[in-house]
Each structure stands twice: as C-alpha cells, then as structure tokens.
Amino acid sequence: ATPLSVMVGTGKGAQAGVLIRSAEALETAHKLDTVVLDKTGTVTEGRPVLTDIRPADGFTEHELLRLVAAAEADSEHPLAGAINEGARARGLAVPSASAFDSVTGKGVQATVDGRAVLVGTARLLADVGTDTSGQTEEAAEFSAQGRTPILAAVDGRPAGVLAVADTVKDDSAQAIAALHHLGIETVILTGDNARTAAAIAGQVGVRRVLAEVLPEHKADEIRRLQGEGRTVGMVGDGINDAPALAQADVGLAIGTGTDVAIEASDITLISGSRTGVVTAIRLSRATMRNIK
Ligand code: ADP
Ligand code: MG
Asked: 198 to each of 21, 59, 139, how far by Cα in Å?
C-alpha cells in the first residue's frame, strides 16, 4: 500500500479505537482466513466469580473454601482472585499458607494448617495420584454450563469441587458472526478444559476449540494452524498470550489486557471492544483494494 493509503487506514482505525502499529499489520490483516481467540478475557469478560462449592465427604463448604482460598492467596491467576473474593464475601477467616507453589496452566499447591492442599485441574490431581472419580460427575455438570471446575485435594485425598463462572462478553457473539460473514474461520484457544471451552464456544457460535493447551504451547498451536496453510490472526489479553500473539501473522491485543500482550501485538483494540477485530480486517481490505 502507498504511505498515504496506510495513513488513511491507520487514521480511520484510530478513530474507531483500533490502534494499528505498523503498515505491515494493516497490509497483512486483509489476508487473514482464521482468527484464534483466547477464551479468558477475550471471549469472556475475564472477571470470574465463584458460583458453587461441593465438598467431598468429611468437609463442609466453609472448610473446603477456607483451605482452597488459603492455598490460592498468593496466586495471581484470575481464578484465585475469584476464590478469594468468594471467601471474603462469605466472611471467612482465611488462614495463611506456607510452601506455596504454582503449577502453570494447572493450579497451585501450599501447606495450610499443616495440611498439603492441592488445587486445580483434574489432571493436576491425577498427576499426583489422587483419585477424583467421585468428583467427575459434578465437574462435568459445571463444564456443561461453561463454568470452570476447580478440584481440591487435602493430604492426597479429594476434598471437593468448586466452580467459577466467567460471563461471555456482550459483543463476542456479534464480532464472531461478523468474522464468519467475512469468510473467516474462528477458533477458541484455552488452557481450560475441553468441555467448558466447548460450552463457551457454543454460546458465541465458534465451531473449533483448542482446549487444555498449556501456556507454553499456545504459540505452537498457532504455528500448527499456519502449517495448514492458514493466515492466522490471534486475539488475546494476557501475559500467557504474548508468544502466541507474536507468532500469529497479525496479533491483536485487547487494550484492557496486560502490557506484555500489547507489546507483543501488531494491533491494539483500545476500549476492549471485540468488534475491533472486524474493523481492523475491514480497514485492511479497503486499504488494499484502493491500491490495486
Ligand atoms: P487460560 O487459557 O484460560 O488463560 P490457564 O492456562 O491460565 O488458562 O489455566 C488453565 C487451567 O488451569 C485453568 O482453566 C484452571 O483449570 C487451571 N488453573 C490454572 N491456574 C489455577 C489456579 N491458580 N487455581 C486453580 N486452577 C488453576
Ligand atoms: Mg490466560
């Protein structure tokens, strides 16, 4: 594109809250045939709320939540925030934990009241040999509702399941429908479990889901899609998303996300609007049409 048409395109983008950081990004966006959306904070609000507490035998709701909140107190994960807010709202006194350790993309462990508390995915608990078959049904029930089940083990034994819900963004379905209308395929990419991801995908009309992807493998999934001959846009907001944003042909960061994500991206959607993805692609198509 000519410098003038790039200036015009970039200027129109800025007016619409779409900050295009390079001429190359504006030129590449018209070729996108696939847009990958991070689930948490991109398709959803990214403000999870504790909704359910189902203790296993030998635990009360409050005892389970107290232990889990203590183990999560030092975690920076949004799910940990939801759990601690849930404990606070119920007026629970959360004890302090020691020996805190986080397992990226899986959960946390800590010692609370002299007990070993492990909190996270079914896979994390299975990794240490905890049998969670008693929690499978409840976890499936939460997942089917699009909620994230969080399992807990205390001293190696199952202690129950919590569920956390994150509302779908009100403009997600609209943005996804508009992308489909432009002939672009959409994919949800997430570390969350496959059933929860499928339920959220169903709510917003996305047909393809890449779930249970560890943070360090998100960029690999983008590379794999590119290997299928696709030109891939990636929309994300978090620290975990930076490598995938950088790997994508065009990385689009939600403006309310982390600085790391914004730095790794080619386009920033300020005001956090999901329809900005559509605006960016339309602008790119218009810019490239003008110069042909
Ligand atoms: P996302 O793709 O949504 O950013 P992550 O890779 O951060 O997901 O985490 C993947 C999954 O690991 C979460 O859905 C959750 O089940 C589990 N998990 C990660 N961190 C925690 C935590 N601090 N507490 C409980 N579960 C966690
Ligand atoms: Mg994330």
From this structure: 33, 31, 14
